[in-house]
Amino acid sequence: MTPAQKEQFYKDYTAIVHKFNGEYGTAFVIDPITTFTDEYWLELRDFEEMLKGRISTSSVVIENKEVYAPSLVPKLVELQMGSHKIAIRVDGSFDTQLNANTPDGRQLFSALHSLSSEIEQGNGDWKQMGYDPSIVDQGRAYSITVTGYYSFHGVSSPHNFDIIYYCNKNGGIT
Fold first, then answer.
1. For a surface tag, which of 2, 75, 99, 134 has the fewest beta carbons within 10 Å of its beta carbon?
2. Which superkingdom (predicted)?
3. 131 and 90 housed in the same domain
């Protein structure tokens, strides 16, 4: 594909993205043309089909079966966009402390130090933009909303998902 053809396709892609955002209420953003690799250049019909598959998005948090020390606790989130699926690994770092005011004394969350995320399985790029944590259930759990942008085939889209970390009575985290 020549540079002139790429520029024309990019203009057409931009128009398609704007059309989808208006018709479906999506918030797709076309990535800069300089970030496009050869595999991103699709026929216009295929580009539209790819976007249609990303309109309906859902996320599922895979609950931990293992108990982790508070210093590094992974969680997996599956992000499903049509037939396209990725797994995002979210790593949290926490502190817990013994609370003698609870029956039998137990560990509760006391702090969230950091939360990071990255794609563990699948294609594309994920950029975490932020997170909003809340201690819930009297300190036994952290409910966290993670926000970020997923980019695939030259189009980025915003995504939010909620995860919950649980602290057991001994300070182990799931």
1. 2
2. Bacteria
3. yes
